Amino acid sequence: MPLSDKTEPNALLLQAGHDAATAEAVIEIDTLMQKWRRRANKRELGHRALAQLKVDLDLAQFDVLVAIAGPTDHGEPQTETMIATVAERINIDPSRASRLVSEMVDKGYARRAVSQADARRTIIELTDRGIAVVEAVRAYKFLVMGDFLAEWSPEDVAAFVPLLKRFGTWMDGIEQAGEKHAAEIAVLAEEIERAGVREPA
Domain tally for the chain? Predict the structure, then answer.
């Protein structure tokens, strides 16, 4: 069933006060992001990296190694890693995190150690083998991305990186947008309610 005039994306954006160029860009970017998300969800790069590097791990196990390694973003402090830390970093249940960590310890990719801050606390560290795997997969990703960007002009690369950083913050304004467009959001909610009423029993 087609969208109503009130909820059709282009019309909605124009009614909200955006110009036609912005409305078109929003729709095109959303389409591209959906395609990107579908490919990202398939984890094509990760699967290929582990296969070509001949690493006997699946992606869930590799994710645990990355979580144990800790953040690579310089804006996030490096802290000791525990089971709860792993669970939080990859958003899984602590019991599943515990099982996966145990698998990594048994395979020789990680080890348990005593916290330097509190001797009563057990932490998880990567072994040299675990570090080698994480670094190799990251290097694989960088090689693939490097080949792709090498085909761009220096000017395109110089323009793209700051724009991508800027675009990466677009969701930070969700709360303000919700307040600004409260009336439009209320109309959308009413459309959902009316659609439910119209459904046959």
Answer: 2
Residue 154 lies in a domain: no
Q: Which residue has tokens 């992606």? A: 59
CATH assignment of the domain containing 85: 1.10.10.10
| Residues 69/80, Cβ–Cβ less than 8 Å | no
Q: pLDDT band for position 161 (50/70/90)?
A: very high
Going by C-alpha positions, the residue among 86, 123, 124, 122 that lies closest to residue 105 is 124
Q: What is the pLDDT of residues 17-32, one digit of tens each?
A: 788 888 888 999 999 9
Tell me the whole-structure pTM to 2 decimals.
Answer: 0.76
Residue 170, token pair as written in the block: 């677009």
Same domain, 27 and 66: no
Largest CA distance in the chain: 64
Q: Show the 3-state SS of the chain.
A: CCCCCCCCHHHHHHHCCCCHHHHHHHHHHHHHHHHHHHHHHHCHHHHHHHHHCCCCCCHHHHHHHHHHHCCCCCCCCCCCCCHHHHHHHHCCCHHHHHHHHHHHHHCCCEEEEECCCCCCCEEEEECHHHHHHHHHHHHHHHHHHHHHHHCCCHHHHHHHHHHHHHHCCHHHHHHHHHHHCHHHHHHHHHHHHHHHHHCCC
Question: For tokens 């048994």, what's the residue?
Answer: 106
Phi, psi of 146 (to 5 degrees): -60, -40
